[in-house]
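PROTOCOL LOG
Step 1. Enter all chains and additional molecules of the complex.
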Amino acid sequence: DQQVKQNSPSLSVQEGRISILNCDYTNSMFDYFLWYKKYPAEGPTFLISISSIKDKNEDGRFTVFLNKSAKHLSLHIVPSQPGDSAVYFCAASRKGVTGGGNKLTFGTGTQLKVEL
Amino acid sequence: EPEVTQTPSHQVTQMGQEVILRCVPISNHLYFYWYRQILGQKVEFLVSFYNNEISEKSEIFDDQFSVERPDGSNFTLKIRSTKLEDSAMYFCATTWDRSSETQYFGPGTRLLVL
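Step 2. Run joint prediction.
Step 3. Record the structure below.
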């Protein structure tokens, strides 16, 4: 099941520069997208999200762009800081048909390393 | 800031034994989830739970798995007879409302089945 893909397993960026992490999806029913950051031995930490009715959402240094026609989203971090070094997961969800919550489908993650 | 907690942080068990993983959701949250991550693989959905019943479950969540909210606060995942391939990090996640798509994750329980 490869509904959400992150094709770059790793990315190295210099401090102060822009980090761009990419994510592709195949299921056109997805209507909400999230980015999570994960440190080793910790749970995923929510960073930023975007609804399918928007094409951009910004929160401080983090901006997520959504291109629905290309089924592609990206996370921009500007400026990158050493503390941003972690694994970044893209996740997607769709409104469930049941009365319960909406499961997240994750990508495989991209290891970001921000170097001094 | 409220957070999801999980116990134990690590569990080692023998194949065939039962394990119970515990999660304490954020207090006003109503929707609960379990996910797992096998080493080197992606985070995978196991089950969602709302109003004391399972809303959705994945193919992974077979008869060996069960969930419950025994006392109105803890949310547990039980694996009745563990297999080697159950070794993984298990994450609990919660959200307060179905319209809130953002799920908040606990730190995880690392389960090792020998």
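Step 4. Note key features.
Chain A has a mean pLDDT of 92.
The interface with chain B takes residues 32, 34, 36, 41-46, 49, 51, 89, 91, 93, 96, 98-109 of chain A (CB under 8 Å).
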